[in-house]
Write a structure and sequence with these properties.
This protein has 434 residues and is an alpha+beta fold. It is built from 13 helices and eleven strands. The chain has two domains: 250 residues, no CATH class; 74 residues, no CATH class. It has a three-stranded antiparallel β-sheet. A three-stranded antiparallel β-sheet has the order 4-3-8. Strands 5-6-7 form a three-stranded antiparallel β-sheet, with no helix packed on it. The longest helix is centred in the last third of the chain and has 28 residues. The two termini are 65 Å apart.
Length: 434
């Protein structure tokens, strides 16, 4: 029995009792995103340079990895063969008229970081299962409606007055219209939690520090104080309201703003400036800003050294930090991208296909590759076939010419030099063998 027939039976016959309990109170009702995505995106990506740099760096790195398509085969000596032409590759190369492949990947990755959820829509050619276009949708415009068994029954896209439902009922003869990728959320059964939400407290603190510094500069970069009226020659001891308004207006015009920094102010009779005693050094946020920036960068999985944040001594140099960034952050996301696409686009016609990325084509990891080759070259206890397999190549090389250093002489352990002393007692043992 085929995998797809088993899958259909599993959806029809099996159901989790816990899942039914989860949705018992809202069967058929939409489940809304728990937090305001628009506010998170505005406060983080649109107002914080560290968040912007982290999200963009991850998106650009992921979109730069070459993607390949393999077909499982039963050919002797090979398990998979690479495909260079296929409708899936065609759709990925030009996802839709508005987006390139790099833009689609960057959008998918950025939404994961900011919202914890990312949605792709697949359009298939009428009457076939060939994917012809792929679209990325804003997370806050998508709503999940679960069924009685806890599975997402419908995804509904809403934008203003426009509303479009996507039926997610399992069908072995169709591609699901929506792929929902999500980060882990400990308190939500349908939606994920992004790095921006986890770092929101640090983002708010950093933004408040920037806003305070901006307001301080707008007010002549001076701490707050007060003008104390001590009376004038006529004996007046209290300013009238018109006098207060006139004084406040003059101070705002002559003292506030960057262009007025350092300009002297001539005070009228009876006015004295009284500082509130704030030390300007107490207003410096350099150390605090760097600490919050490091916290934000670590939440997004980006080594602070790559962003030029001072005070981070985790890595010895930029190359080491960049290699850790690729190994610990980008490659896991690349596996989610290729693995998710494979599972989503798997159909009876596409059974046996696998999307993968080429790790050897990543420049940041080239040093690791060189180190591996050097180690294998010096491993005298391995055969040439074992070295090829350890390096990720086929054990039997394809037709071609291999060039090796002239001082490398192959030795077959089965060939042993004969004992010539028994056949020729006058033979010189030190003489070379012919």
């Amino acid at each position: 029995m085929s995998f797809w027939r088993n899958l259909g039976r599993a959806f029809n016959a099996k159901a989790s009792a816990a899942a039914r309990a989860i949705v018992a109170y809202n069967v058929g009702q939409p489940v809304w995103t728990p937090r305001d995505y628009a506010r998170i995106a505005e406060q983080s990506f649109m107002r914080n340079a560290i968040v912007f740099a982290c999200v963009r760096k991850k998106a650009e790195a992921l979109s730069s990895i070459p993607i390949e398509l393999y077909q499982r085969t039963r050919r002797a000596g090979a398990n998979e063969s690479e495909l260079v032409e296929h409708p899936i590759l065609t759709a990925l190369a030009a996802p839709n008229p508005l987006m390139s492949y790099e833009e689609l990947v960057a959008s998918w990755s950025s939404y994961l970081d900011l919202a914890g959820n990312s949605y792709l829509e697949a359009l298939t050619r009428l009457g076939t299962l060939d994917v012809i276009e792929l679209y990325s949708h804003r997370p806050d415009r998508m709503t999940i409606t679960p069924d009685a068994q806890g599975w997402p029954r419908t995804y509904t896209y809403k934008n203003g007055g426009f509303e479009r439902p996507f039926d997610m009922t399992p069908d072995p003869q169709k591609i699901r219209p929506i792929w929902h990728a999500r980060e882990f959320h400990p308190l939500n059964d349908w939606y994920g939690m992004g790095a921006a939400e986890a770092a929101l407290a640090s983002i708010d603190i950093a933004n408040s520090q920037k806003a305070y510094s901006k307001a301080l500069l707008d007010n002549s970069a001076r701490p707050s104080g007060a003008f104390v009226f001590e009376g004038d020659k006529e004996g007046g001891s209290v300013l009238s309201q018109p006098q207060r308004d006139e004084l406040r207006k003059e101070i705002e015009e002559r003292m506030t703003g960057v262009e007025n920094i350092g300009r002297p102010l001539i005070l009228g009779g009876g006015l004295k400036w009284q500082s509130m005693g704030i030390n300007l050094k107490d207003l410096e946020f350099n150390d605090a800003s760097a600490a919050e920036a490091r916290t934000i960068a670590l939440a997004f999985g980006v080594p602070p050294l790559l962003l030029g944040i001072p005070g981070d001594n985790t890595f010895a140099n930029y190359e080491e930090a960049n290699r850790a960034f690729w190994r610990e952050t980008i490659l896991p996301r690349a596996r989610r991208w290729t693995g998710g696409l494979t599972a989503w686009l798997a159909t009876p016609r596409n059974e046996g296909l696998r999307l993968a990325y080429d790790e050897d084509a990543i420049p940041a990891l080239s040093k690791e590759r060189r180190d591996l080759f050097e180690m294998l070259e010096n491993a005298t206890f391995l055969t040439a076939e074992e070295k090829r397999e350890a390096a990720g190549f086929e054990a039997e090389p394809k037709v071609g010419t291999l060039f090796v250093p002239a001082n490398m002489v192959p030795i077959d352990a089965a060939i042993v030099a004969p004992d010539m002393s028994e056949t020729d007692p006058n033979a010189d043992a030190s003489a070379p063998l012919n």
